[in-house]
Amino acid sequence: MTPFSHPRATRAAGQQTRRALLDAAGPLFAARGLAGVSQADIAAAAGTFPSQVTYYFGSKEALFVEAACRGVLRAATEVERAGDRTRTPRTYVRALVDTALASPALLTFVEASLLVRRRQELAPRVRETFARLHAEGERAVVENLAKRGWQIRTHPGEEARGFWAAILGVALESAASGEAFSAASADATVQLVLSLYAP
Amino acid sequence: MTPFSHPRATRAAGQQTRRALLDAAGPLFAARGLAGVSQADIAAAAGTFPSQVTYYFGSKEALFVEAACRGVLRAATEVERAGDRTRTPRTYVRALVDTALASPALLTFVEASLLVRRRQELAPRVRETFARLHAEGERAVVENLAKRGWQIRTHPGEEARGFWAAILGVALESAASGEAFSAASADATVQLVLSLYAP
Questions:
Q1: Lesser CB count within 10 Å: N end or C end of chain B?
Q2: What confidence tens digit (pLDDT) does each residue in B8-27 have?
């Protein structure tokens, strides 16, 4: 063992604990929201001490925001992959909408976006996540158009922003309706985004 | 005075108190959210006793949901009126989006939609409000198309649903950004809805 191996090992263990907390927190928050989950619940699910939530994230709220942002960015990656497997604008847009709405992180992200109104110190992470959603979404649209030779009626960045706005709105309506998602509003989002595609 | 005048007067006074509580609660909740406003705050602003919140609404949360739903339905009426004053599809859609996003009730309604996930007894009012937003929106689109002779690429009901989904999403992003609203995402929503309009 070199004198440096111990700090390295500690850092790796720390990263592992941090990831374990995030992995455990994601599904708990998705199912029960911020108020329905305690630090003790998360620690129990992650196999850590409750104090480690504070040690690694600062607060339960900060872990909530981090889990929400990580979750929605993962959903965005899955959305892009789902789009790649389709052949027509209609099946492409349908796959984007259905894959996005299937993510359990969406409502956690909606709740996180509201939370940071009164927790300004946590707002930068949510803002940065919106910016990444839009930037990655724009890049994905540009690449997809180039690859397929499809055309749209607006700027690719506007497709990406409009897509995520409508998806978050449908997720919110689904929360109120108690359904997995509102099928009619999902269909409407497909039509809205699809109408960008010529002809 | 007839024997009936006293009950009638009492009922009228009750309706006035109820309305005073709603009128006072709307701006307070819009500015500070559910957790940031107490029954005593609302009662002080309305000139009533704190116990009257419970008497007329059952709980602060029920008053919150009622204020949110009333507020967003009023916004919908204003959106329709703003659309009437325009002449082209572009100015029409722009007016709808800007008027909707200017409503302080939007974020209260977003928060109410999340709240009812864990307050199932309050969910019917939010669901009914989504249904009215969509039904009134569809009627407004149908009337507008008939009056102007404009055509759209999808069903009017889908324009209405897609519009409100995207509006709620933009309102949410604005909450996180701390701005009045996210101008780029508002523009994207305009483009998305406008792309429904032929040619």
A1: C
A2: 667 888 899 999 999 999 99
A50 touches B at CB < 8 Å: no
Could you say which residues of chain B have pLDDT below 70?
1-9, 180-181
Report the topology of domain B65-194: Tetracycline Repressor; domain 2 (1.10.357)
Given CB atoms, is B34 within the 8 Å cutoff of chain A?
Answer: no
Which among A159, A177, A185 has the least Cβ separation from residue B161? A185
pTM of the model: 0.92
DSSP string, chain B: --TTHHHHHHHHHHHHHHHHHHHHHHHHHHHHTTTT--HHHHHHHHTS-THHHHHHHSSHHHHHHHHHHHHHHHHHHHHHHHHHT--SHHHHHHHHHHHHHT-THHHHHHHHHHHTTS-GGGHHHHHHHHHHHHHHHHHHHHHHHHHHT--BSS-HHHHHHHHHHHHHHHHHHHHHHTSS--HHHHHHHHHHHHTTB--
Instruction: Please list the residue range(s) of chain A that carry CATH number 1.10.10.
Output: 1-58
Assess B37–A contact: CB distance below 8 Å, yes or no: no
Residues of chain A with pLDDT under 70: 1-9, 180-181
Write down the architecture of domain A1-58 according to CATH. Answer: Orthogonal Bundle (1.10)
pLDDT in tens, B130-168: 999 999 999 999 999 999 999 999 999 999 999 999 999
ipTM: 0.92
Looking at residue B3, its pLDDT comes to: 46
Looking at chain B from residue 85 to 104, which residues have their Cβ under 8 Å from any Cβ of chain A? Answer: none
Percent over 70 (pLDDT), chain B: 94
Chain-chain contact of A166 with B35 (C-beta, under 8 angstroms):
no
